[in-house]
Amino acid sequence: MTYLQAFIIAVIEGLTEFLPVSSTGHMILADSLMKISDREFAKTFEIVIQLGAIMAVLLLYIKRFFVGPGIYLRLFVAFLPTGVVGLLAYKTIKHYLFNPFTVSISLIVGGVVLIFLDKWSEKKASKYVNVEDIAFKDAFKIGLIQCLSMIPGVSRAAATIMGGVFSGFNRQQAAEFSFLLAIPTMFAASGYDLLKEHENIHSDDIQILLFGAGVAFVVALMAVKGFIAFLNKYGFKHFGYYRIAVGIIFLILAFTGGLH
Question: What's the pLDDT tens digit per position in 228-252?
């Protein structure tokens, strides 16, 4: 992987990680378009640079973690289903589902769901005053729905935002809880991948991983702020239209041999 390829993928990660469009799916599609030969390292790179994006959220929402222990407990409950399922299914998912066809189908199906979610949640009021007030059963429900995001193209953000709306949050609260839940989820995913693949990572790889994480951090810092403003003004439907369009385009490319 060249530094130019790493830069492009890291920008995609930073822009899409917290949007309901699937950052992993977009990076897999970008890999295919750029015909990156080292697929195994590319998969590790895509997971590890998420740490950079997560540091951006941690910086922006650091005050949330000083309001009391309640938020930690609720995030732990929400993380638990994904942690268990991810530990059991990690190898299978990474080996069989990280491909353009899976991503394209997931983007299209998820796009349709987002369009319906936008209509349903348009005037929905929250049953919680603050994100930290969410009931433990509702936090667990969000965690269960987040498990769907292990399928590339589904989008962790889309799954957790959908779960948040179904669990009683309004749109903004659902997005903010999704940001917060991303911290333990993605730290665990990146850490686990590094643990599994550390013997295959060389000194040159470490430099490019740090470079990618740094780019993702800067881009994500700007993307998160813009997402909340866009969500409050336009809702989810435009993300749904975008997902469907991208999914169809790449599905056609996959069948016509335009992807590697």
Answer: 889 888 889 999 999 999 999 888 8
pLDDT at residue 103 above 90? no
Question: Does residue 168 contact residue 134 with C-beta atoms inside 8 Å?
Answer: yes
Token pair 């997971």: residue: 47
Nearest to 180, CA basis, from 84, 81, 59: 59
Q: With contact defined as beta carbons under 8 Å apart, do 100 and 246 qualify?
A: no
Give residue 159's identity as a one-letter amino acid code. A
pLDDT digits (tens, 9 = 90+) for 188-213: 878 877 777 777 677 778 899 999 99
Count other Cβ atoms within 10 Å, centred on residue 18: 26
Q: How many CB atoms lie within 10 A of CB 159?
A: 26
Separation between Cα atoms, residue 179 and residue 157, nearest integer Å:
8
Cα gap 28→44, rounded to integer Å: 11
Please state, in angstroms and as integers, the Cα–Cα distance from residue 131 to each residue in 17, 70, 77, 170, 207, following that order.
20, 10, 14, 10, 37
Q: Tokens standing for 34?
A: 């750029």
Rg (alpha carbons) of the chain, rounded to whole number: 17
Residue 18 contacts residue 183 (beta carbons within 8 Å): no
Tens of pLDDT, residues 211-227: 999 999 999 999 998 99
